Model the fold of this input.
Amino acid sequence: MEYFVRHRTTYRYLQDVSHSWHLAHLRPRVTPLQAVHDSSITLSLEPASRVAREDYFHNPCELFSIDRPHTHLEVLAESRVTVNPAPVRASRDSEPWEEVRARLENPQDDEERDAVQYLFDSPMTSFESDIGAYGAVSFPPHRPILSGAIELMNRIHKDFRYDTTVTDVSTPVDRVFEIRAGVCQDLAHVAIAAMRAMGLPARYVSGYLLTEPPPGKPRLLGSDASHAWFSVWAPPFGWVDLDPTNNILVGESHVTSSWGRDYGDVAPVAGIILGGHDHVVEVGVDVIPVDPNSPELPYLAPDN
Amino acid sequence: MSEVAERISLPPSRFDELRDGDGEVRAHWRAFARTLSQLSPEEYARRQASARATVQDNGVTYNVYDDRAGQARPWQLDIVPFIVSSADWKAIEAAVIQRAMLADMILRDVYGPQELMASGVLPPHLVIGHPQFLRPLCCSSPAGGAHVHLYSADLARGPDGAWKVMASRADAPGGLGYALENRLVVSQTFPESFGDMRIARLAAFFNAYKESILGLAASRRDRAVLLTPGPYNEAYFEHVYLAHYLGLTLVQGDDLAVRDGEVFLKTLTGLERVAAIFRRVDSDFCDPLELRGDSALGVPGLVEAVRAGGVVLANALGGGVIESPAMDAYLPAISQALLGEELKIPDISTIWCGTDWGRKEAIARMDQCILRDAFDARPLFSRWSSARLGADLSGEERERVIARLKQRGETMVLQEISPLGVAPVFEQGKFGAKPVSLRVFAAWTPTGWMVMPGGLTRVAADDTVRALSMQSGASSKDAWVISPTPVDSFSLLTNGGRPLEIKRHGESAPSRAMDNLFWLGRYAERTESFVRILRAVTARVGDEPAAALEAARKLLIPFSQASDSPIEEIAGDQELADELQLLIYSPRHSRGLQRLLRRVEQTAWSVRDRLSLDTWRTIHALTVNEELPPADAPFEAPGARFYLDALVRRAAALSGLSAENMTRGPNWLFMELGRRLERGQHLAWLVRQTVAMADARETEHMRIVLEIADSAMTYRSRYLNVFQLVPFVDLLLLDENNPRSCAFQLAAIESHLRELPRITLAQRSDVPRTIAHEMRGATTNANPARLAFCEAGARPGLIELTDNITFSAGELSDAIADAYFQHASRNRTGSSPFMEA
Done:
């Protein structure tokens, strides 16, 4: 499936911001299932400095700073990507979770060594609550790791309420676990914490969902903003992505943007501003299928 | 000589630094033991007391976060040095150099090609699982190539006398400044021994450390700064001290700015390029954009500047990775792989529990060992340390630990600890022996590593294994290394060499420091004015209760708040006495004297590097926490007067010192501006509060105001004992010859403002000067008779002028801040109104 993705972030500040620095993860990465035809970031102000690079996880990222007083900034990211359907995985064919853990105790190649970093608590998935015991229910002895992860996803979907009003960016995963509610980012963090508590590798994936569902299909939760899910390393398949918010395996309607240990590694735009006093952020996301036979980009109604 | 040795009783199974197995004093201790036995106990106590006084006067502190006793705690120093023989030192020196080299090579590898992990020498868990592994720094090489410029290792002796490494530091090692201060104090305490014993000197080490880093910088003309977390950091004193000793500008993150991949210092006159940063802020706090977003200590964009190669950071960012206990378990193998050598001094025996074997060992041996988080580099058993003695665990805790070992063994280590060697100490008037450890420092130089011949010796607070964290009440010592050859007495403080160029001013000043000096001037003046009001009221409490009550109602109201009618809260004599007791003594009264003194102290502490030792000591004398009556005790006027009198004298000492001894540079200018502005505003307020409304007790009011404004003598010499409003108003508001008049302050402000630079756009707009000029014009053009003119019980001219001064003073303060201080607060912005869906 080919998509046009537009992600617009608008900052409005109460007072002049004299300087600002931003780190953006807004350009989708190439993955085994995803090709990126082109992507760009457009700023409403001329930046004083701007550097595009790849981060440690090989996500494209961009650093820019603005050095004159402003009260308004718009960051517009536009990309065209093709997402291929994920191959069908028989979860029972994945390795038992104990074997995955043993394998990572003595990693043998680059892929295994890379997976090791996802065993450890990261700033936003550190927990002290009983997340470990909650997750352990899905991992009885010798269960194939992907079967366990899918069950964990089913349970989180069932036990946690999707609610955009109860958490914010700084809500600790323990709190989400306690109130059993949150947004896609929170549910992903809970799943990741539960996997890592078992000594199993799990990572955080940020991305997008198709805005308008195909005819006859329900609209998915989280499609009007950027989305997030988790991924589990399940040999022999490698990394497999699961979306606990919608209780589905990640497929053709998910566009992958970036991945890392948790949200903190891949926030779409992180910023530091001098001054400004208070600010509001508005975000608009559109993910529109492109007809491969039509050379024209889909028509997008200008928002606002 | 054995006399002292005999007085020391020794715990069993310890290595004794002082005596050998036969009870004989070891050769390298003999000379010093001889000195000690020649001192009388009284003389010994006197020297310890004098050393302690020096430490306190110099403001040597080690702050403890959230310590109830207040933020600054005096540094604990035991004057008996820790003496190291030449032979022992040779071995230590070689071992520390070997480890410093390894630390640098490991960091070079893990932030570069990562071959140690690929070849299986180092489990990747210990690097990419480490919270201090800073991914944004990967694949970039620090300017100059070296990752580590300063390395430290904490050494201690086991029962067999063999040295072990307890902890190592390669991120932002601390203790160098304390070691230096200890040396200065202890060498003065035992001048006879220090002179005779061929003790190796430290200055050459500091010189090499500094020069090597400056040598890496792109240009020697640019600034070199020492980056501190600020006055609330536990080791702030050391940062001040080192910056001064090394000739660096002390800065906080807010003082620096990154532009186009280069780092600049924000000064009064704009941005100045910074070539080298001596870093004392932990790596992960250094850049809120790419590292810890919640850090208020860093510089946004610093990592990008590092990648661009525009600045030398010493140490380079990311050194925390090698500090973890888990790394200790693999250091022998790494040493073999990288150097083909065994470790010359091993770490305390450490097993990482991320392997099958490690877990089994841990479960089998936990009773004799400690368990600890694999990446927890905090000193053992310090506050927040994760270390637990296996033997201390309850049955339930034990089960939890075993479950964690099985599930997430990679997050834990098992360490063997043994009783530390003991050295002689002198405490509470007698000698004893306490466990010690020695922190040794190595500095990178272009020609190889150099070890400081000495170090910071730390003395455990008690004799248990929970020892040796400065935070848990331990003490420290100087370390004397006996040199095999005559010592080089090179000193950084009396550097000869090439002739210096004459300078009439220092380097241009960081604007944050000027902001603080401005406020130090304001708070110091505010304190003095308030003390004078309190004293004037207190003086009347016994003899003239009505006058006291009247003055209190007018002047003990919320500070610098104008009010046409006196407050009625202070109903009678008893309420007044209670209120005075609280205002003078209570540390919790929001507008009380004690709060104000704390503000003076904290503001002074934040610019400690810009105050002379004498100025600091004067401020210390003014703000020191002395034994005060409790806030709920009954008010005693004589005692209060005595205390307030003393404060007036101390405040006067401070203003006298700054008038006479501070160089007329920006430091003085801003402190003085703050003082003048505060005093001018306060005088206007005083006059307005007391005589704006006609009142039968006017003479009484004028007398008390003249007393508070220290102008009674002048008034009397001009007008004898006749109190009239016209001369009164003239003397206090309009007379530019009276240093206590409003007009005098305004004239001084106008002249000081002319001295300030006019470089930036905001400065060239001249707003402060325009305001000051108008304020001064209002007083010079005022007619005292018109001010005193009374109509329907009020004096409209006086009210207009004083209100005008009060209002304009506030505007002026803001205008100065706009033009000279950077004051925009830093905020974070996120990706969405709430978060991702």
Q: What stands out?
A: The helical segments of chain A are 97-105, 110-116, 131-136, 145-159, 173-179, 184-197, 263-266. Residues 43 and 74 of chain A are 6 Å apart (CA to CA). Residues 145-159 of chain A form the longest helix (15 residues). The longest strand of chain A covers residues 2-24.
